[in-house]
Amino acid sequence: MKIRFVFTALLLGLAAPNTESADAVKLEPVTVGSAVFQVEMARTAQERGRGLMFRTELPKDRGMLFVQPPGPAVFWMKNTYIPLDLLYFDADGRLLQIEADVPPCTTPSCPIYPSETATVRYVLEINAGEAARRGIQVRDRLRLE
Asked: By residue range, what is the domain housing residue 131?
């Protein structure tokens, strides 16, 4: 199984602390079901490798959308200080899986959160509990504006 770019980047020492303000980055709107989020896009290996690491807060309506070639996805929370919901989508934007309330990890050994299928194209990270609060369910659609 391929390990997500973040895991590989960290092993290679490519992921550096993200010192940018969340307000200084470009945000794009995405919709999941009827819920709208303003997201940072993580398209490159470096962006996916850094993710939301070292951030201490994330506004309720914000998130990060990871765009990868279709395949399995494996996430971990190394150096991520915010509890998150992880939403895995296929290439058609159909929500396949929700990993709810994933806790932060600041220890050397962090659990991994693999996708249940090998057809993941997008992963949306949002604040823990937001998927439930907004009624997001498996089979909802991701729409990029």
From this structure: 5-140
